[in-house]
Amino acid sequence: MMSVLKPFVPVLLLCGGIACQTTAQAASWQVEKDHSQLGFAGTQTGSAFKGVFTRYEPTITLDPAAPEKAHIELTIDLASAKTGDTQRDTALPGSDWFDIAHFPKAHFVSTSIRQISGDHYEAVGTLTLRDLSHPVTLDFTLHIDGSKAHAQGQAAFSRALFGVGQGPWASGQWVGLPVTVTFDFVADQAP
């Protein structure tokens, strides 16, 4: 389940809500993991649940004058998924779910990023999970204050696209097929 963007997990740069007139160079942004979160949500037997990925590696590069040329990559250590429920947390790494013995990581790579309006953006990219790749769209807001950025957003998709939930779990009868990956990232512009 993808910070996203780096679920995913995208951070872009907007020059005060107006077109940038500078010739700035592409810069790297470092996510402050102590102040950021990559999460996921779903339903089990009709009840909502949430979880987090505690280990992930985002790579974000952008040119403030051309945010559409930004590049976002996110690698997620699937073994780091935690929901606070012992039974669920024990099952997630197993072969019916993430199958971390064969597919330990999920990977998102952006292919296009565009401003929708104001501080609202959309990043389209490819999510690879359990060795299956499909397009995923991240909707997010972005606020910039000097050299610090704050992005919040989500991506929604069906876990069935990626084979997450095998055997009796494949139908969605017990665990819902729709999942949402959420992110709340604070990032600093690298020197």
Overall pLDDT metric: 86
The tally of beta strands, per DSSP, is 11
Proportion of residues in helical segments: under 10%
- Encode the helix/strand succession as letters: EEEEEEHEEEEE
Number of contiguous helices: 1
Determine the structural class based on helices, strands and strand pairing. mainly beta
Largest sheet: 8 strands, antiparallel, barrel
- Strand arrangement, major sheet: 1-4-5-7-8-9-10-11
Straight-line N-to-C gap: 31 Å
Question: What spatial form do the alpha-carbon principal axes imply?
Answer: elongated
Low-confidence stretches: 1-24
Radius of gyration: 17 Å
Q: In percent, how much strand structure appears in the residues?
A: over 45%
Give a structural overview.
The structure is a single chain. The chain is mainly β and 191 residues long. The protein contains one helix and eleven strands; from the N terminus they run E-E-E-E-E-E-H-E-E-E-E-E.
Topology:
Blueprint: E1 27-31, E2 37-44, E3 47-53, E4 56-62, E5 71-77, E6 81-82, H1 86-91, E7 105-117, E8 120-129, E9 132-145, E10 148-158, E11 178-189
Antiparallel strand pairs: 1-4, 1-11, 2-3, 2-11, 3-6, 4-5, 5-7, 7-8, 8-9, 9-10, 10-11
